[in-house]
Every structure is written in C-alpha cells, then in structure tokens.
Amino acid sequence: MHATARAGINIALVKYWGKRDDAENLPAVGSLSLTLDSPGTTTTVRFDAGLPADRFTLNGQERADRRVFQALDAVRAHAGLALRAQVTSENTVPTASGLASSASGAAALGLAAWAAAGLPTDDLAAQPALVALVRRASGSAPRSLLGGLVELDRDTTAVTQVLAPQAWDLRMVIAVMTHQEKKVKSRPGMTLTRETSPYYAAWVEHHAADLAAARAAIDARDLDALGAAMERSTLRMHACMLAADPPLRYLSGRTLDALDAVEALRADGVSAWATMDAGPHVKVLCHAADAARVHQALIDVVGVSEVLVARPGPGARRVGG
Ligand code: DP6
Fold first, then answer.
1. Which residues of the chain are in CATH 3.30.230.10 domains?
2. Using one digit for the tens of pLDDT, what is the confidence trace for 169-198?
3. Potential cystine with 47: which of 35, 72, 83, 308 (Cβ 3.0-4.6 Å)?
C-alpha cells in the first residue's frame, strides 16, 4: 500500500486571497493559474501496519505538520482505512519563501495518499473528496492537480483545465529574491486582510472581472491582454494587503526594481508581464522565444539571488511503481 506522486508548483495569474469559510478553507474569490513543470514536490506515502503513528519527512528532516496528518486522516476516512502512514517528501522549491511550495506539496501528498489507499486516480478533478482534502491543506493546491492553465471556481471549488500545457508555448521566468521564510504565512495574512483592510470588499467585488478578462485573453491567445489582467490582479491583491492594519507588505525594494526591469522590456517590445505572491519574488510570463532575454534582464537586477525558467507542466501524476 504505497505510491509516489509528483506535482509542479502553480503560479496564479488571477490571484486567490481571502476565505469565505476558514474551517473548510473555501476561497472568497476564484483563481486562474499556470502549473509549471518544475520546481515541484515528489512524495511517497506508505500505509504500514507496523507504524504506531503517522510520520512525515521533508527533504530528509522529520516534521510534525498538522496539515499533512489531517490530509492522511481524510484519505483514511474516505477509504475506510485505519493504518498509519510514512510520508516522505522531496521539495525542489525554496520552502515557505512564498514560492508556492505548499501547493505542489499538498497536491503531491494528496495524490500519493489517495493512490496508496487504492482510490481511483484516472481523472483527479472528478474526485471531489480528493480536491477538498488538497484544498484544506492549501487553498491554491487543487490547481496543481491539473496541468497547464487551470481555473478554480469560487462557488463549486472545482478545478478545470482551461488550456493544456502544450497548447501555448509560454514561459514563467522566476526571480528568486531570498531563501528566507516569509514573514506572515498566507493563512493569518488572509485573516488579517479580511478583518482590517478597507479595500478587501473592493478586491472581492472586482475579482470576477479580472477572471473574465483573463479567460477571454487565453481564448484569443493574446499574451498582452492576459498579462495586463495578471498585473492588475497581483497589484490589486497587494494594495489590499498593504491597506491592512498592521500593514501586510510582502514586496521588497528588489521586487520594485524587477518590476521596473519588466516595464523596460515592454518598452523595448518584449511581451513580459509580472506577478507576485505572498513573498518578494517576481514571476514573469512571456513567450518561449523571449525567455532568454527576460532571464538576462532579471539577472541584471541587483540583489536577485537566482533566476529560474519554467515551462507549462502537467498536473500531479503518479511516478514509479
Ligand atoms: C498569494 O494556498 O498558500 O499564492 O489556503 O491559506 O493555505 P491557504 O493559502 P495558500 O494561498 C496562496 C495565495 C497566493 C495567491 C494564489 O496562489 O492564488
């Protein structure tokens, strides 16, 4: 009773920030993201009659992570299983730096546990119990169950593939600003924003229009229209966070320098569009043909510690036996 699964991180083009139900981790807004081929997480789950308790190891270090054990409980409840599990994860994402490691981690864990328990893995989006347990671990993670451009619906919380990874030759160029953990994790950050930011209601109210614009731009394969909706969404999210009390600021000076570099690329005729999550890193969406140029422009930003070029990737899948 064991299985190994791999999932790539996903980067939201139209952001999720805020919950309408904390216990079930239901989002206050929908979201639309691109799943990447790497970095990501590979996780093995082994249900074993000899284990007295669940155990979780991440990159060789034993961890007591409540969300991991809750996901295992949900799989056990669904499969009618009592066995404890050994979970072994390898992450190639800088953990907790705001680079979406929780999304690839929760998707890989959910699928590995689901498969190890003998549950069906042919159409992941059609398994609401799997989608729900992955969402409880991390609200952005169900999007990593599917490949390419993926939408998470606010009301049904279902995930749907909008465009397959090979259908549009895009790149996501990621400027990593720091390997330090983020100051405020998403969960308390979302609560603080909802409870204290006077801009929260406006964020939620205008969100559907950004989603619709992004969907239309994808249909038309119009990167400039998609990029404009993407930058609007991230800047509105950060404006809403900055207006919280106390203010929630994930962006650093280097983030703004990178945004200047992206604007300069556009002035030079390169279709390059930026987005930031709950951290200072800048992710730039561009055509494959422009990736080398965008990569160099981000390396030239002083203080950027690493620049990765990622392709659209597949959804979470079983690997090995
Ligand atoms: C800023 O999935 O980390 O990356 O649901 O509280 O676990 P929880 O949050 P998480 O949210 C990440 C939000 C974001 C934007 C996005 O990915 O849509």
1. 2-164
2. 999 999 999 877 778 999 999 999 999 999
3. 83
- Selecting from 3.30.230.10, 3.10.20.30, 3.20.10.10, 3.30.420.10, what CATH number does the domain 2-164 have? 3.30.230.10
Confidence of residue 95 (pLDDT cuts 50, 70, 90): low
Q: Is the pTM of this model over 0.90?
A: yes
Tokens of 144: 């990593």
The answer to whether the bond into 94 is cis (omega within 30° of 0) is no
The ligand 1 atom at the shortest distance from the C-alpha of residue 27 is 5
Separation of 144 CA from ligand 1 center, angstroms? 12
- Going from the Cα of 141 to the center of ligand 1, the distance in angstroms, rounded, reads 8
| 134 CA distance to ligand 1 middle (Å) | 12
- Ligand 1 contact via 97 beta carbon (within 6 Å): no
Fold designation for 170-310: Alpha-Beta Plaits (3.30.70)
Q: Does the C-beta of 104 come closer than 6 Å to ligand 1?
A: no
Rg of the chain over Cα atoms, rounded to whole angstroms, equals 19
